[in-house]
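Researcher: We plan to redesign the surface later, but first we want a full-length starting point. Tokens attached.
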């Protein structure tokens, strides 16, 4: 059986059409990707004031301190710093590390009612802006630059809500805290974040919203002071340094927070603090 021979013009037309469709199908597209989310936009409901119905987290404090290291950060160029109370409480000497084997002596002011502490030095670094009166919302990010395990490092987290910190042992007390879910950390940093205590918790505008005070490694949680606790600590030390709401620091994102953290440490705006008992 023989099929009739198709005219040449019909064959050529079919080939041209096939090539045309193939070329159109492989045309390059240069669509822009969707815009990233606005990191400053509210991500959830506002966090309300402390309540007696907030869940509790219990911490046992040993009766005696040993040599310890933590993190502190500048809040006034005149030489005012914030850190975590348990890092410096009971220190015979406390110093800020400003270079290899070089430290600057500090005067410690501990608020017996809260987990934040004030350090005073002769002169200081550029301060981090405070945002202690700004509303907090569930899901917002925080960035924690400091010295975990005694080495430069940082973590990032998202706000879950409020809890009540119950301290047992020396300095027994309870106080409101903020609880954050850890969402990232320095590449290669494994295990505890110990040494990050006292680090600032910075919002997306690089402003301080709390002081990092504890972690729960098994739950992947980071705890910071509530803003009102820091305000009370500053007031008890005679320091009222809350910056205007318009003050901002270096913007921080999940893509750049480790670079910003390195800059803060190089500028000594975030420094390692060493506590010695003798």
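Model: Full-length starting sequence:
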């Amino acid at each position: 059986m023989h099929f009739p021979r198709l005219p040449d013009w019909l064959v050529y037309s079919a080939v041209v059409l096939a090539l045309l469709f193939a070329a159109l199908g492989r045309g390059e597209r240069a669509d822009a990707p969707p815009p990233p989310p606005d990191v400053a936009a509210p991500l959830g409901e506002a966090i309300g004031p402390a309540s007696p119905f907030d869940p509790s987290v219990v911490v046992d404090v040993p009766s005696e301190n040993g040599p310890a290291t933590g993190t502190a950060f500048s809040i006034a160029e005149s030489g005012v710093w914030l850190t975590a109370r348990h890092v410096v409480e009971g220190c015979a000497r406390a110093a800020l590390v400003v270079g290899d084997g070089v430290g600057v002596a500090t005067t410690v002011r501990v608020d017996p009612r809260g987990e934040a502490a004030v350090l005073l030095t002769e002169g200081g670094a550029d301060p981090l802006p405070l945002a202690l009166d700004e509303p907090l919302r569930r899901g917002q990010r925080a960035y924690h630059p400091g010295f975990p395990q005694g080495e430069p490092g940082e973590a990032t987290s998202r706000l879950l809500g409020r809890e009540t910190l119950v301290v047992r042992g020396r300095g027994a007390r309870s106080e409101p805290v903020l609880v954050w879910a850890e969402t990232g950390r320095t590449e290669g940093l494994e295990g505890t974040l110990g040494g990050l205590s006292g680090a600032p918790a910075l919002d997306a505008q690089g402003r301080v919203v709390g002081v990092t005070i504890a972690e729960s490694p098994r739950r992947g949680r980071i705890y910071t002071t509530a803003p009102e606790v820091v305000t009370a600590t500053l007031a008890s030390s005679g320091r009222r340094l809350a910056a205007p709401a318009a003050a901002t620091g270096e913007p921080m994102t999940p893509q750049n927070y480790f670079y910003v953290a390195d800059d803060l440490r190089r500028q000594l705006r975030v420094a390692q603090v060493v506590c010695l008992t003798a």
